[in-house]
Amino acid sequence: MDREKTVAEPNVPSLTPPKNVLDDEWSQWLIGTWGTAAESDLGQFKNWVKGRGHMRVEPGLGGQFLIRKMDGHATEVSDEYMRYLSQTQHTPEAEIEKLRNLPFENIELHTFDPTTGRIVAYLFDSWRCVARGTGTRDGDRETIEWEWSVAGRGTSVRITNRVGEDRLAVTERYTLPDGVVMEDRVQMTRVR
């Protein structure tokens, strides 16, 4: 009987939630609303799109996750990229015009793996992309490596730097399945 109990115990899940691992200084500092300004390069197209939006960060699910909700829209699409779509891809003018104010939303859930201390993150966006990320924080820098699936493919590395009490700088470099690289650069300022 004692042998059966010893064998069974490692398989019994703990019913106690992890301690509130998101009471660290970075997580608490990040909570709030941020204004965003972004620009992106896509392969040969430098600054192919620019955009603006907001990011809202709040604790959720019993304080075990940070929930990041982003929304925004394109504010400018480069003439070079528009010509490429029209002349090379034969994209109809009506579709090209939609790019000029293209809306975008995503939601991310971030936490820490209690056994390793590494960041674990999930992302879902309005283009039906799903990503799973893992990463680390070191001082004023967070690095997350993402694997994209469903409507998105490829991988990315996002580096977030705290550059002031109320400012973040984010660079995310995507490697798409065909080898093309896209790089997003985002400046965020806390909304007071």
Rg over CA atoms: 20 Å
Instruction: Walk across the major sheet and give the strand order.
Output: 1-2-3-4-5-6-7-8-9-10
Total number of strands: 10
Beta-strand residue percentage? over 45%
Average pLDDT confidence is 91
Largest sheet: 10 strands, antiparallel, barrel
The tally of helices reads 4
Principal-axis shape: globular
Give me the secondary-structure category.
alpha+beta
Helix/strand layout:
Blueprint: H1 2-8, H2 25-30, E1 32-42, E2 45-60, E3 65-77, H3 79-88, H4 93-99, E4 103-112, E5 119-125, E6 129-138, E7 141-150, E8 154-164, E9 167-175, E10 181-190
Antiparallel strand pairs: 1-2, 1-10, 2-3, 3-4, 4-5, 5-6, 6-7, 7-8, 8-9, 9-10
Task: Explain what this protein looks like in three dimensions.
The protein is globular and about 65 Å long. The longest helix is centred in the middle third of the chain and has 10 residues. It has 192 residues and is an alpha+beta fold. It starts with a helix and ends with a strand. It is built from four helices and ten strands, in the order ααβββααβββββββ.
